[in-house]
Amino acid sequence: MEKQGENSSRLVLVLYPFQGHINPMLQLGTIFHAKGYSITIIHPEFNSPDPSNHPLFTFISIPDKLLESNVSLSPADFMNLVSALNRNCEAPFKKCLTQILDHKHPHERISGVIYDGLMYFAQTVADALGLPGVCMRPTAAAMLLFSVIPQTEQESVFETQIPELQPLELKQMFKSMSTNPTEAMTEVRAAALNATKRSSGMISNTMEFLEHAALSMIREYSPAPVFTIGPFHKLAPSSSSSLLQEDAHCISWLDKQALKSVIYVSFGSMASLSKQDIVEIAWGLASSEQPFLWVIRPGLVHGSQGTELLPDGFQETVGERGFIVKWAPQQEVLAHEAVGGFWTHCGWNSTLESVSEGVPMLCSPCFGDQFLNMKYICYVWKIGLRLETELERGKIQGAIKTLMVNIQGEEIRNKAAEFKRKTQVCVTQGGSSWSSLDEFTKQILSV
Ligand code: UDP
Predict the structure, then answer these.
(1) Residues of the signal sequence (predicted)?
(2) Prior bond to 231 cis, omega within 30?
């Protein structure tokens, strides 16, 4: 049961309602709960998490008026959605937080508000109510460079960027982000930057060794201290926060496969593919001759369940060698000894989950920060291979073989295994993430 009452401390966490943001925030809640804090999760009505999976937390839903705001949920309309959520949620959040303060036990303390960086209205409310506001960033820390360096300086700073950051091509990214920005984009960037400046600190789901150069640069520019306490899921394993039902049958199937033989294929919760991509992937996997576990979530191909698009003869060809699910318990899958490769869209959570299990990656980024993550994986950390944007069965087959079997992939596999060992060091006592968490608790939560 939740610890409440006398001399306890509570943290209020504000969710951005998409899978790749819900997971890390609830993991963070688990980390602080294990440290003795009571946790209240405040979330918009849209994509509400299931409270029964997290009986130790208190969940409060606030009206988001998304239907009335008439925004689409497609990645292309992302900035309008963020803007609408911030406009619509600020007043209900203030009301809700005021009630929490009014009704708390006299000896209970609200230690702070930790909000997803896209829910920046929470900083305004925290400021108004005199509470520390902390921004949680569920992306690579390198993405923070676009928030902490003034826009007018970004191009020249990125031009002279330090060698370790060159493969990320930050200048090109800045240019494409600043070409013809929409009104919502300009508004969201300015407001997020402003909130970040006023925050008491930032929590980044990353590790010092992964992003040393980017973190040094961020610390040069950011007035708020940055705490790197990732991968969150390794500091305090939490229960599932999947919005779709996880199919656990794949674990029994994995149990029957040979060590490091399986390629796990998943493109996360938002990316989409074409019908032809499904056909190419199917035949690429079939001809690789490796066992595979493939997540085809409803909507992966717009307006379809996906599995009906599999080509004739595919199931007969692969038989028991392939296993297809709508949604997998991904962390468990990546930690399974049968998994030897991950074909991913390079979402940051997927990237970190793979890094921490030492699984080398085949990269097919689709949009946004996934391209930056791919560059980290393939050209900075060298623990993965990039696939051409145009998916083609022969290239898929060759890339899987290189990643998992052929001698050309050996360095990548060894490097990935080394990253698993380094991650373990980070999250154990004295490691950088462990120490950063300790520092955060002392510096931010106890004032
Ligand atoms: N995930 C999962 N099962 C799946 C596919 C994905 O549990 O079948 C989880 C995955 O572990 C990760 C999250 O969904 O935590 C996806 O986040 P990510 O940042 O990788 O990508 P996004 O979905 O935001 O594009």
Answers:
(1) none
(2) yes
Question: Do 29 and 176 sit in the same domain of this protein?
Answer: yes
Whole-model pTM?
A: 0.96
The reply to whether 57 and 193 lie within a common domain is: yes
> Which ligand 1 atom sits nearest the alpha carbon of residue 348?
19
Structural domain of 91: 8-230+427-445
- List the chain pLDDT tens, one digit each, 447 residues: 454 545 589 999 999 999 999 999 999 999 999 999 999 999 999 999 999 999 999 999 999 998 887 787 777 788 999 999 999 999 999 999 999 999 888 888 999 999 999 999 999 999 999 999 999 999 999 999 998 888 889 988 998 767 889 999 999 999 888 888 888 888 998 899 899 989 999 999 999 999 999 999 999 999 999 999 999 999 988 788 999 999 999 999 999 999 999 999 999 999 999 999 999 999 999 999 999 999 999 999 999 998 899 999 999 999 999 999 999 999 999 999 999 999 999 999 999 999 999 999 999 999 999 999 999 999 999 999 999 888 999 999 999 999 999 999 999 999 999 999 999 999 999 999 999 999 999 998 886
Q: Is residue 244 part of a domain?
A: no
Pairing of strands 384-386, 361-363: parallel
CA distance 117 to 137: 6
Cα 323 from Cα 315, distance rounded (Å): 10
Overall size of the chain counted in residues: 447
Q: Is residue 189 part of a domain?
A: yes
CATH number, domain containing residue 68: 3.40.50.2000
Instruction: Judge if 330 and 412 occupy the same domain.
Output: yes
Same domain assignment for residues 413 and 441: no
Q: Is residue 238 part of a domain?
A: no
Strands (E), 219-345: 226-228, 262-266, 292-295, 322-325, 339-344
Whose C-alpha lies nearest to ligand 1, atom 21? 347
The total domain count for the chain is 2
Query: Cα(106) to centroid of ligand 1, in Å?
Result: 40
List all residues whose CB is within 6 A of at least one atom of ligand 1. 19-20, 23, 242, 266, 268-271, 295, 327-328, 330-331, 347-350, 353
